[in-house]
Specification:
It is a single chain. This protein is an alpha/beta fold. The protein has 2 domains: 171 residues, Aspartate Aminotransferase, domain 1 (Alpha-Beta Complex), CATH 3.90.1150.10; 246 residues, Type I PLP-dependent aspartate aminotransferase-like (Major domain) (Aspartate Aminotransferase, domain 2, 3-Layer(aba) Sandwich), CATH 3.40.640. Helix content is 41%, strand content 17%. It has 18 helices and 13 strands. The strands form 3 sheets. A 7-stranded mixed beta sheet has the order 3-9-8-7-6-4-5, with helices on both faces. The protein is globular. The mean pLDDT is 93. The structure holds 4'-deoxy-4'-aminopyridoxal-5'-phosphate. The site of 4'-deoxy-4'-aminopyridoxal-5'-phosphate has 14 residues, from α7. Its EC number is 2.3.1.50. This is serine C-palmitoyltransferase. Belongs to the class-II pyridoxal-phosphate-dependent aminotransferase family. Its cofactor is pyridoxal 5'-phosphate. It catalyses: L-serine + hexadecanoyl-CoA + H(+) = 3-oxosphinganine + CO2 + CoA.
Length: 445
């Protein structure tokens, strides 16, 4: 046994998704590109290439000013955080220092966290909220706190990996329904409670609780959740609802209040609202909002609040300020203007790409605009052609999407000007010709 352990390589070259890793190896230069500026509408990208042995990436020392179509900077706070939030951020740095050095449950619950929690709860229309240091952790460590063996989690098939891992870690039974299809959700619920192991025709519900988990906007599809229909099914079968608003809070709805506002669903109809500060707010961290009872319970049950240092107080202050601006509490129309600009920009960009004959996913008003590349070889080709033309884009391949589902995922920002977008579209148009990415609309609808 000792011999075997001695010989066991830490990284098994044949293990895991071997084919996917081989494929990725050849396109390493398209990922982990160092950026030497703030992640605003325009960024400085450091060029990189594979070393002479074809193994390790090295930077060439050159930086390129590129239009950034990849960051989740929906409301442009990454661009001008110093002029919009800087005063508060600097003050917070002086008061608290950069980090809390403790979990919330120990000595890391700082007054700015409490203030932010109150603001979040009011904004999303829930009695209480609690903030986490990371959006990913918010899902990964909350789901196991609220679901256990005996519970049933019914998850949208395309939910984010933080939800998938949170569901797995909970020990609950997990079932998936077809992406964004309320009809299929109903089929799955009925299978779980009615057509289960009970006598024919008899309602059989062997679960301590059933929680339906969905997202406001799906991060790889740019699709907006059909929340009204999903909530109706959940209510009909007395299931709880958990909605991840990472991409929808601050982006959807007239006042930025997310998917509930967009879909005409009252926040009371949702049991647990989750969101992150890394997108519309230009910060870090995440939140859970719900009943006071739920939040009190999480403070004693979530590993994210008990065993992991809390959100940086400086970031918490920046996010607080972003909330003020979005709500117009700074006495300006900056927030309102940006909420309008993000939708205008996203809809303009999506429409133009479709007119070009590209295969574009997602719904109106969604700032995520994925464009299908399909073939895996086109992933790197698109990224490199874009960089050659001073466009920084995020390309996505397996395992984040199916192996034949390669795509470029454009993220549109309120900080993009129409001129920026026009210029980008012109260059994208050139690339679509080079890579043969135009499909007739009759095929792709
Ligand atoms: N939920 C969803 C739907 C996401 O897309 C992401 C990340 N993009 C997260 C959670 C994790 O958030 P964060 O990056 O803030 O950790």
């Amino acid at each position: 046994l000792v011999k075997h352990v001695d010989e066991a390589p830490l990284l098994d070259p044949q293990g895991g998704a071997f084919y996917v890793r081989r494929l990725k190896h050849r396109m390493q230069d398209c990922f982990f590109r160092p950026i030497s500026s703030r992640p605003g509408a325009w960024i400085d990208v450091m060029e990189q290439r594979v070393d002479d042995n074809g193994v390790r990436m090295e930077t060439t020392g050159e930086t390129k000013r590129c239009l950034n179509l990849g960051s989740y900077n929906y409301l442009g706070f990454a661009d001008d955080w110093d002029s919009t939030c800087g005063e508060q951020v600097h003050a917070a740095l002086k008061i608290y220092g950069p980090a809390s050095c403790s979990a919330q449950g120990d000595a890391g619950a700082m007054s700015v966290h409490r203030e932010l929690e109150e603001v979040v709860a009011n904004f999303v229309g829930k009695p209480a909220a609690v903030v986490f240091n990371m959006g990913y952790n918010t899902n990964q460590l909350t789901l196991p706190a609220i679901a256990q063996a005996g519970s049933l989690l019914i998850s949208d098939k395309l939910n984010h990996t933080s939800i998938v891992n949170g569901c797995r870690a909970s020990g609950a039974k997990v079932m998936a329904f077809k992406h964004n299809m309320a009809d299929d959700l109903e089929r799955v619920v009925r299978k779980a409670i009615i057509e289960g192991r009970g006598k024919p025709g008899e309602v059989y519900r062997p679960w301590t609780k059933i929680i339906v988990v969905v997202e406001g906007i799906y991060s790889m599809e740019g699709e907006v959740c059909d929340l009204r229909a999903i909530v109706d099914v959940a209510k009909k079968y007395k299931c709880y609802t958990y909605v991840d608003e990472a991409h929808s809070i601050g982006a959807l709805g007239k006042t930025g209040r997310g998917i509930c506002e967009h879909a005409g669903v009252h926040p009371d109809e949702i049991d647990i609202l989750m969101g992150t500060f890394t997108k519309s707010f230009g910060g870090m961290g995440g939140y859970i909002a719900g009943s006071q009872e739920l939040i009190d319970y999480l403070r004693g049950a979530s590993a994210g609040l008990l065993y992991s240092a809390s959100l940086s107080p400086v970031v918490a202050e920046q996010v607080l300020r972003a909330f003020q601006i979005i709500q117009g509490e700074d006495g300006t129309t900056v927030g309102r203007d940006r909420l309008r600009a993000i939708k205008d920009n996203a809809n303009y960009f999506r429409t133009k790409l479709k007119q070009m004959g590209c295969s574009v996913l997602g719904d109106d008003d969604s700032p995520i605009v994925p464009m299908m590349l399909f073939h895996s070889t086109k992933i790197a080709a698109f990224s490199r052609e874009a960089l050659d033309r001073d466009l920084a884009v995020v390309v996505v391949g397996a395992p984040a999407v199916p192996i034949y589902g390669g795509r470029v995922r454009f993220c549109i920002s309120a900080a993009h000007t129409k001129e920026d977008l026009r210029m980008a579209l012109k260059k994208i148009s050139e690339i679509t010709k080079v890579l043969n990415l135009r499909y007739t609309r009759s095929i792709f609808g």
